[in-house]
Amino acid sequence: MDSHCLQISMEAHKVVPPPRKSTLVKLRDRLKETFFPDDPLRQFKDQPWQRKLVLGAQYLFPVLQWSPNYSLSLFKSDIVSGLTIASLAIPQGISYAKLANLPPIVGLYSSFVPPLVYAVLGSSRDLAVGPVSIASLVMGSMLRQEVSPSGNSLLFLQLAFTSTFFAGLFQASLGILRLGFIIDFLSKAILIGFMAGAAIIVSLQQLQSLLGIRHFTKQMGLIPVMSSVFHNTHEWSWHTIAMGFCFLVLLLVARHVSMRKPKLFWVSAGAPLVSVIISTLLVFAMKGQNHGISIIGKLQQGLNPPSWNMLHFHGAHLGLVIKTGLITGILSLTEGIAVGRTFAALKNYKVDGNKEMMAIGFMNVVGSFTSCYVTTGAFSRSAVNHNAGAKTAVSNVVMSVTVMVTLLFLMPLFQYTPNVVLGAIIVTAVIGLIDIPAACNIWNIDKYDFIVMLTAFLGVIFISVQQGLALAVGLSIFKILLQVTRPKTVMLGNIPGTDIYRNLDHYKEAVKRPGFLILSIEAPINFANITYLNERILRWIEDYEEEEENIKQQSSLQFLVLEMSAVSNVDTSGVTLFKELKQSLEKKGVELVLVNPLAEVIEKLKRADEGNEFTRADNLYLTVGEAVASLSSAMKGSSSNMEEGTQAIVSHY
Amino acid sequence: MDSHCLQISMEAHKVVPPPRKSTLVKLRDRLKETFFPDDPLRQFKDQPWQRKLVLGAQYLFPVLQWSPNYSLSLFKSDIVSGLTIASLAIPQGISYAKLANLPPIVGLYSSFVPPLVYAVLGSSRDLAVGPVSIASLVMGSMLRQEVSPSGNSLLFLQLAFTSTFFAGLFQASLGILRLGFIIDFLSKAILIGFMAGAAIIVSLQQLQSLLGIRHFTKQMGLIPVMSSVFHNTHEWSWHTIAMGFCFLVLLLVARHVSMRKPKLFWVSAGAPLVSVIISTLLVFAMKGQNHGISIIGKLQQGLNPPSWNMLHFHGAHLGLVIKTGLITGILSLTEGIAVGRTFAALKNYKVDGNKEMMAIGFMNVVGSFTSCYVTTGAFSRSAVNHNAGAKTAVSNVVMSVTVMVTLLFLMPLFQYTPNVVLGAIIVTAVIGLIDIPAACNIWNIDKYDFIVMLTAFLGVIFISVQQGLALAVGLSIFKILLQVTRPKTVMLGNIPGTDIYRNLDHYKEAVKRPGFLILSIEAPINFANITYLNERILRWIEDYEEEEENIKQQSSLQFLVLEMSAVSNVDTSGVTLFKELKQSLEKKGVELVLVNPLAEVIEKLKRADEGNEFTRADNLYLTVGEAVASLSSAMKGSSSNMEEGTQAIVSHY
């Protein structure tokens, strides 16, 4: 029976090249995997053409999916949530517009049109659309590099709309060209570091309104802002500071309450509007503006004026505008997609990344025609929307209607709203972006990611938002390249009583097989790492031989077994590695054995190996176990190995 | 007995996290693998300090390794090879200097000092040091962008020496900082395409001297050169053309002969010098210069004048000079290292890449102090050197002495040498750089590499040398990133009669296991690919379920088995993938099972998985076989699966 067991496990299985595929077929598959991993057309498969038409329409306009079976009960919950986010959207809209150095009213415009567009095109049910802090900050700071918002406000406005247009164009084309994976390069680590940094930058900017300083630096960095704060102490207005402090406390408390009890979401949701109302009344009653409390001032009434005639596609600032569009576009896109995915996962429905990009992009293009600046799905507001029980995108419609009413009739009421309250609202909103526990978590899991995060954070605070980001992205790409240029090679050993071979450092019980050096290569083999792999493998052999000398082993190295299960690919440089290895091994009288080369790999090796040097049947095996078994039985070495060899196999049974 | 076999293979082996290592230890190991893969200090291990000193000196000055046992017989063969390469180096030196728009004599200077330096520092025995075509071409063309070599020849010369200095500095620091792997990014494919392109560019430049055109374009590209050739047909000098044609034929024949019979290496090696002598005599006899045959003209005599006072480290052109230094530096380095490795492999000795870089770099720095421009180990000349039987770097010394003699006494003889012959020599030299078979080979093995090669080739011809290179490098890095953002996921099946599981598309005999979806992921899981992997895996599941519906299978999916042997690493984003998968699978009532997570991976998963959701002992297995065995025995599904499950295992014995 033993012999029976033995015989079976000795008969090794052939490694065959995969079934032939034409280059075109391969190319098609590769392209499909690259651009259509989600296989969007699967639902159209074998359907009648009318059905296909309907499905197509629904694909383009998700509204058609849910509107047919929209019910009153759904509408009820959508109304509640819609009004809730409206009460949040109005003060935030005004505040974020100021953050972007734009007239406050633009913030309200941006909370009116885009939500309507999204309601038709968007596939997320919880996204609350509107301007967001980070995109506003970045747009403001980037445009301010070339044009002063106070000095030449019209041009500044035109540039803002134009960059919004480019942002939308960029987002939509990312979706259409199925290049959504580009935003994946803003990794979790980067985003956490970046958002924390941005939150700090944003809060620092608010010191102007919170302290009532009139002459404030135009720069963003930590140092310039701080110095300008403490060089203008004489401008600090104590009324403003007192007022700001009270409302900041009030808002933070509200936020804290809602965080403790999600049921009480409306506390933090309503707080901003309440504080706006109270503070406005206060200022109005006590003529605050005479006590040095700066107020918004007159705002014109009426709906979004058209702005397509304000778009600039030529002139000196085109470069800046495009750059701003790209960066704000990718930032707002990242936030929007992330929010969408988060809540989709919570409620267990799917949002199609590329479709979302088209929706958000188109929304911004339309926005740029109707006096809106960059908008997307905001984290904070969507959370409120979700807690308030939003069921469909109708809540966005409700919000935008409420904003419309405000624009038409309620604008005069904001005339006396003090800027200090807006500052307090922004600070409370962005403080949530600083996520300490997540940072600690990253430190625990992956130190390199932590460095990336830190780079993003410090880069944003001390250099600039876009450069900080670029630096962090560069670092994380460098890590990928480093993993490829310096792939791990580990020595495998036999786990006693089995024919399993595993990493010797990892599984302490694993034992070496005399005469065999078994290495597993853990990366694709290509131009970037052949030199390293060649050197490293030869060093493994030297170490092996040294060791043997030390322990006065007779049995010398006879087989170098390369376990290739983790080598997902080789390129033309990669195949030369095997030729060179083969040569240098022959000089040492060592045989090269390859185990489980994957489909593409064996294919390329066969093609490259005319001399049939390293892809002969007798040095290709399907598992290390089989390789060792059939080789040690054929081993010419001292009989002792022979016995050990077989004995180990027998012990398996 | 069966039951015995069965029982053993059923008892599964635990996946344990690897033995604890402190972050510092890990960091140290990582750094060592990155910067010291060849472990240069191993030879110093446990040696007495005097020995260590000797070894250290020998490490810095390889000359000390071979000089002690240098013999007369070695010297004999070195003399022969030395004289042979000298006869090649002198005409080539003059020609390449003209290629770089430098005075011809600089080419000879560069064949005198650097070889001496290399003989002391270099570790290759076959490298023949001197100026090379590509570096000369690139330096000439880049510097010409800002300074005209004819108009302001002194400044041009100064810039050339300065860029040589920077090239050397860059090369040496690459070696000292152990960043040698940077040159690996010039993959084989890129080099083949680039060299072919460069060869064509260089040959095109020679049309000026071959046709005797006086007013030639200053540009490099194919189109401008061709147009300038055919717009100046009236300048074509028929004497020149006739002469050029004859010598070109002569040289090509000689080259062909030596390629057929390596024994006759001296034919092609001597041919250039012979043609220089003949042509010079011809011109001198028939007063050729009066028939419109342009000649080199007067050359001053004497050895290299010092040039450190000519180095420019400030002023308008510093940027250009540094850029030129970097590019020529990396190009010449690549050629030098490649040549060194090639012949080291042939003769089976080792050249230490980083050490070579220091040697070449230092050689160029010294060169820049002594009126030499960028030099390195030349392909053609080293081949001749090797064939001529060079044994040590002494052949370089012999060559440099010969050049010295020429510089001291023979310069006047070159006065009447016609430029057309130099042109012919260059063309013959660079034609060898066009390697059609290698290109075909690349096409056969890897289509993407072929595209990269083509990019380099066309880029160099039509855009510019450096941009063509940059483009190609960018493409090949993009490929690496693409492989990471779109990793392969393949479905595994059981190879009948074994507990081996392999790719179903690859091994047609493999069969699916009912109730199991077994996927293998073939790349590290990180921020760049979690979104894709998530979508892709869910699609696998959908496909699986559809299929079952079609074939009216009762047994529904119960286990998703992820074979992770090829997942060399995860990062913080990577671990979230498993959390999300776990959640979405639970909704489908499918269990997530991980097989053979590698050391680093299981470590990070454990750390990230506080809830112990996806790293419980009962969903971690060492092999797919064991996972399937013990899970199907525990399977709650229809008894049929149960039987199949066990039956398959029994069939193994």
Automatic annotation (TrEMBL), chains A, B:
MF (Gene Ontology): secondary active sulfate transmembrane transporter activity
Keyword hit for Nucleotidyltransferase: no
Keywords (A to Z) from UniProt: Membrane, Transmembrane, Transmembrane helix, Transport
Listed GO CC annotations: membrane
Pfam families: STAS (PF01740), Sulfate_transp (PF00916)
Record's subcellular location: Membrane
Sequence intervals crossing the membrane: 155-177, 189-207, 236-253, 265-286, 359-380, 392-414, 421-444, 450-478
Primary subcellular site in the record, as a coarse category: membrane
InterPro entries documented for this protein: S04_transporter_CS (IPR018045), SLC26A/SulP_dom (IPR011547), SLC26A/SulP_fam (IPR001902), STAS_dom (IPR002645), STAS_dom_sf (IPR036513)
Topology with respect to the bilayer: Multi-pass membrane protein
Residue ranges occupied by any STAS domain in the UniProt entry: 506-631
Keyword Transport in annotation: yes
Entry similarity comment: Belongs to the SLC26A/SulP transporter (TC 2.A.53) family.
Protein name: Putative sulfate transporter 3.3
